Amino acid sequence: MASTSSTLTISSSSTPFDTKTPRHSAAPSPQCVTLPTLPPPPVQSQNRPGKTTAYCRKIARNVMAMATGEAPAEVATTELPEVLKTVQEAWDKVEDKYAVSSLAVAGVVAVWGSTGLISAIDRLPLIPGALELVGIGYTGWFAYKNLVYKPDREALIQKVKDTYKDIIGSS
Known about the structure:
Layout: H1 44-47, H2 49-68, H3 73-77, H4 82-93, H5 97-122, H6 127-146, H7 150-168
């Protein structure tokens, strides 16, 4: 069995990432290990010239076909998922698209603003703990008021069903 001894070379410099100073290796000492240098990475254009040009030709054909109004074979055969079809049909039924898109943008801004507000409140010293106690207290009160006794549970279930029917419509 052959044994090999390795040494590590460590050189010190005033700046650890000085790219202008040439690299020099110190003399190997018994406490150091020298690592081999890696070969340069291969140039990709030399490895796959045929694949790259074929792909570029395919893109050029698709662009030319779309510019002339013809759909390429790959694009013509793909179908939209069912969810996108439903959304597209619902969007086509909307009469006031400007109002709907304005509401969507306002909703996104409101969610973004409320997220910032909640994170700002969360950074305050005693507020998160106090709000957690309020939430635990309200949860206990709600459970006692609506879930402990059977008539209260039935009334809550009926109220939820009525609210659902009001929102969805009677069906």
